[in-house]
């Protein structure tokens, strides 16, 4: 993903953010409306998302100097996003892991911990798509919304904070000059504390649910049958191809990365036995919903990101903890990759302005990699990189739209018949009372 440049871009009018806010409002409110309105939304949500997106695109193409290049850049980012998440969805749909459906609380904790670690090797999206169906199956006899919410917290977001493969913002940082293994050496403690606290809270939830379950269910969970089978092993190869394609440089051949991903997904779909898809209850419904809603989100957030990029210096950010909270708060509602890019550049500007002596001998013209090299050796600069990285990854779990896998996991859970919380229900029942205090505590301990 290219860097966002504000130096020559025309000023973004604040009112242009209205379509983005309206789309978020529709996503949050319409599922709560009475039957007829809700049915209308379910039928026409794609039209609403695309329509609001086209309003913004039309303004940029017709009234904004240089707007065409901004729209094209966003279109390329959306293409990369949907090809990655869509191909992983298809390939994961061809992997069927038969597990016993009577998981005890401690078994669930171990499963989530494994998912958090795995997210750093195949990405939060890859781990989410591979593990969500087994997770639902192993908790089938007492599945509840909190099982899915904590899966989103741990596997779809916070787990992938250790490596550039884990989450798109970190991969973007790697492309810009942050060494591959640098981050894990500086964030592992906060990762461990955050994941540990989330798993501890989940255990309390799950233990309480277990105790309230009927005695027959508790007894069956205490003595589960040994029944673990793996079907669709060929799709592990396609999964590796997709993860490997992430590292194909755009300069090699435009859109080769996306073509490889789509080809792997197509081969997976054709070669996977139908019985595996049937066992997974595989349909294209969840990816269709994500594709249409996010085309609107990507389009309408162009002015929101542009405004932040142009006026970010006015926020007065100086301390790592304020970078952590601000980049995190915006990553909860904006795509976290461009948000990360914007705040990483703000951090670079802050360090160069406040600590010019650190750059002595480099001259005025510096590459971004040179700036990041100096920041990594500077106490404040180092903490700013960590703050922006963790803010972008951790806070993506605050809403359904904070990170790509979130909405996909919700859609899969919905299609499995699980009663998921609404947009606001997710925030007020889980994110604010459970996730936010843990993230604030981590920021206070490690970044203050």
**Main β-sheet: number of strands, strand sense, barrel status?**
2 strands, antiparallel
Q: Based on helices, strands and strand pairing, what is the structural class?
A: mainly alpha
N-to-C SSE string, H for helix and E for strand: HHHEHHHHHEHHHHHHHHHH
Strand element count: 2
Textual characterization of the structure:
The chain has a two-stranded antiparallel sheet. The chain has helices spanning 18-29, 35-63, 67-93, 105-138, 145-154, 168-176, 182-212, 215-222, 234-245, 256-271, 274-279, 285-311, 320-331, 336-354, 368-376, 379-394, 404-415, 423-447, and strands at residues 96-98, 229-231. It has 18 helices and 2 strands. It is mainly α. The relative contact order is 0.15. The chain has one domain. The model is unreliable at 1-7 (pLDDT under 50). The longest helix is centred in the first third of the chain and has 34 residues, at 105-138. Helix 1 (18-29) packs antiparallel against helix 2 (35-63) and helix 4 crosses helix 7 (182-212).
